[in-house]
Design goal:
CATH topology of one domain: GMP Synthetase, Chain A, domain 3
Radius of gyration: 25 Å
CATH superfamily of one domain: ANL, C-terminal domain
Bound molecules: 5'-O-[(S)-ethoxy(hydroxy)phosphoryl]adenosine
Largest sheet: 8 strands, mixed
Number of helices: 21
Structural class: alpha/beta
Number of strands: 32
Oligomer: single chain
């Protein structure tokens, strides 16, 4: 990596070009990139057809590359394939003895699992699921720590055509309950517990609590991890290791339709109810495979580590499906970045000679704050490529990552994508792109991204606008599980394409385009700069949260009458949560530190949210107020609250405010 034009960290024009060494060995070179890009523009179907044929194993070829019935798409129709087959069976000839997973437990346990072994275990577990009566399209909830059995469970579901819904192990019993009920899951796979900073998270107990309020679940399969005492309910609860010991190793992957549902993953929306994002088989695995090859430049010799949990989309696409489909060696680490100390990630990289490392800006900022002495103890010479995902990375953190972790020689791929997009859509290509710190650079070949204004017209260079995707792509969301109307409203109702030329006499037609919910800007060199969410969804420590979800939780608290939740900038978390709370009439309190507050209410409220949603949703600040700023029609003006929470003077129009004195009162409460 050579650094050009580095004069000041404030100048945006600096670019970082890949070194000649990197360029000469990259999976995707400039010539091929240009060919792919222009083919995607001139022959969209031919482009996808060529890639699908070359990169995926098919039991039966498709009839049509894609069908578009706005806003529903189908890809590679009537083709037959299997995700588990693509991730395992097709590697057995050449890679049966190659390490597929290097797993490191928080307590230092270590296991290496070859492709041959992983295939055997997945086959056995697939047979277990079949013997329990699981049928194609049945939903299975996976609520587990980051252990190999979680990966086995995901792959076994996809092998037999069951639909998994992975619930992040840090979520509460209420979160599991709502997800089990929404998907009407038949089976839950969990473990007795998981380790988190030396403590045991009681996963199985949480499942037991959730199941008291749901009746779709027939069996609970429990992996033994922590050996803490748990209750096993007769006839419902079964031990994973016991089931596996008597299960056959022979299992042929189901030949599934390209559009067979693959998984549901819940993400936060602008209402309190999480959205079950549905992905399907062929299109998803194609794009997961391609982007892993192109963006992470995966080689057979690489040890690849993406630090995401499997409870998030990054864990699905870039811990499990993409890298295994490429036959890579994947490192999995169960623990937190600061336990037993802030050096643990760097120790793991040195000890396992990790070559590719993919993490989130929030983690990078936390490492910066922890101090460089943790890094100086380690060499980090094995690294050749770095990545980030989850939120915009500020140039300061980018530069820190570049020099302290990448030692100024590793390209950094800042990858923009979403749970809904299934895989990376905007990112540098490490052997091609001249990178600007803080920009996700350009859409990948086949992806037609654009920044538009309120009216849906393309913005001028340097102008802020909304990020839309103008053409469908194979790994796109198919719908919100069980709610086509919400799917249409959320993603396809806000912007339309420029009108296509209508034939003589026909009105010109405007087609809906996919709205990402993100603000963005394109600079004069066509680089994309992401500006964060434009709706009421917040990224806190890299995790999406809906302000509504936190609000509806707060108003469930017996003393609370009303609440409004906003984000404000936070050095490490990206955003922190500030909750403005109106207490019921007979209770008075003002601010976080107010001595008049009923004793302990601030802590109680914070813990209440943490318990109901999960520790990541815990508000950083609670501010009490007598009223909230509202428009005459009764809408809370969150824009004003955001200004107050971030200590800014209010800019913009306040004339729609019903009671102008509210702002003054809120300020004096600070
Ligand atoms: C944000 C995570 C800027 C964005 C894969 C998006 C980013 C949301 C980046 C999706 C990036 C993700 N630069 N912003 N490189 N990557 N985002 O569904 O706001 O958890 O809409 O998927 O994260 O979050 P999700």
């Amino acid at each position: 990596m050579t650094q050009e034009n580095i004069t000041s960290v404030l100048v945006e024009k600096r670019t970082f070009s890949p070194s000649e060494d990197f360029v000469s060995q990259a999976n995707l070179n400039k010539k091929e990139y240009e060919r792919l890009k222009s083919k995607a523009e001139t022959d969209f179907e031919g482009f996808w057809s060529e890639l699908a044929e070359k990169n995926i194993h098919w039991f039966k070829k498709w009839d049509k590359v894609y069908q578009w019935n706005e806003p529903f798409s189908k890809w590679f129709t009537h083709g037959k394939t299997n995700v588990s087959y693509n991730c395992l069976d097709r590697h057995l000839k050449e890679r049966a003895n190659k390490t597929a997973l290097i797993w490191i437990g928080e307590n230092g346990d270590k296991r290496k699992i070859t492709y041959g072994e992983l295939h055997r275990e997945v086959c056995k577990f697939s047979n277990v699921l079949l013997s329990l009566g699981v049928k194609e399209s049945d939903r299975i909830v996976i609520y587990m720590p980051l252990i190999p059995e979680a990966v086995v469970s995901m792959l076994a579901c996809t092998r037999i055509g069951a639909v998994h819904s992975v619930v992040f192990g840090g979520f509460s019993k209420e979160a599991i309950l709502s997800r089990i009920n929404d998907a009407k899951a038949k089976i839950v796979i969990t473990s007795d517990g998981g380790y988190r900073r030396g403590e045991i998270v009681p996963l199985k107990n949480n499942v037991d609590e959730a199941l008291k309020k749901c009746n779709s679940v027939e069996k609970v399969i429990v992996v033994q991890r922590t050996k803490n005492k748990i209750e096993m309910k007769d006839r419902r609860d079964l031990w994973y290791h016991e089931l596996l010991s008597s299960s056959s190793e022979k299992n042929d992957a189901e030949k599934l339709d390209s559009e067979h549902p693959l998984f549901i993953l819940y993400t936060s929306g602008t209402t309190g109810k999480p959205k079950g994002i549905l992905h399907t088989t062929a299109g998803y695995i194609l794009w997961a495979t391609l982007t892993t090859k192109w963006v992470f430049d995966i080689k057979d010799s690489d040890v690849y580590w993406c630090t995401a949990d499997i409870g998030w989309i990054t864990g699905h696409t870039y811990v499990v499906y993409g890298p295994l489909s490429c036959g890579a060696t994947v490192l999995l680490y169960e623990g937190a970045p600061n336990y037993p100390d802030w050096g643990i990630f760097w120790k793991i990289i040195d000890e396992n000679k990790v070559n590719i490392f993919y993490t989130a800006p929030t983690a990078i900022r936390a490492f910066m704050k922890a101090g460089d002495e943790w890094i100086k103890k380690y060499k980090l010479t094995s690294l050749r490529l770095l990545g980030t995902v989850g939120e915009p990375i500020n140039p300061k953190a980018w530069l820190w990552y570049h020099s302290n972790i990448g030692k100024e020689k590793c390209p950094i791929v800042d990858t923009w994508w979403q749970t809904e997009t299934g895989g990376i859509l905007i990112s540098p290509l490490p052997g091609i792109t001249a990178i600007k710190a803080g920009s996700a650079t350009f859409p990948l070949p086949g992806i037609f991204a654009e920044v538009v204004d309120e009216k849906g017209n393309k913005t001028k260079p340097e102008e802020d606008g909304f990020l839309v995707i103008k053409k469908p792509w194979p790994s796109m969301i198919r719908t919100i599980y069980g709610d086509d109307v919400r799917y249409k409203e959320t993603y396809w109702s806000r912007f339309k394409n420029e009108p296509a030329m209508g034939r003589a006499g026909e009105p010109a037609k405007r087609e809906a385009v996919y709205f990402t919910g993100d603000g963005a800007r394109v600079d004069k060199d066509n680089y994309f700069w992401l500006l964060g969410r434009v709706d009421d969804v917040l990224k806190v420590s890299g995790h999406l949260l809906s302000t509504m979800e936190v609000e509806s939780c707060l108003v469930n608290y017996p003393l609370v009458a009303e609440a409004a939740v906003v984000g404000y900038p936070h050095e490490i978390k990206g955003n922190a949560i500030c909750a403005f709370v109106v207490l019921k009439n007979d209770v008075t309190a003002r601010s976080d530190s107010d001595e008049a507050a009923p004793s302990g209410i601030v802590e109680d409220l914070k813990n209440y949210v943490a318990k109901a949603i999960g520790p990541i949703a815990k508000p950083d600040q609670i501010r009490f107020t007598e009223t909230l700023p509202k428009t005459r029609s009764g809408k809370i003006m969150r824009r004003l609250l955001r200004d107050i929470a971030s200590g800014k003077t209010t800019s913009g129009d306040t004339t729609t405010l019903e009671d102008a004195s509210v702002l003054e009162k809120l300020r004096t409460n600070e």
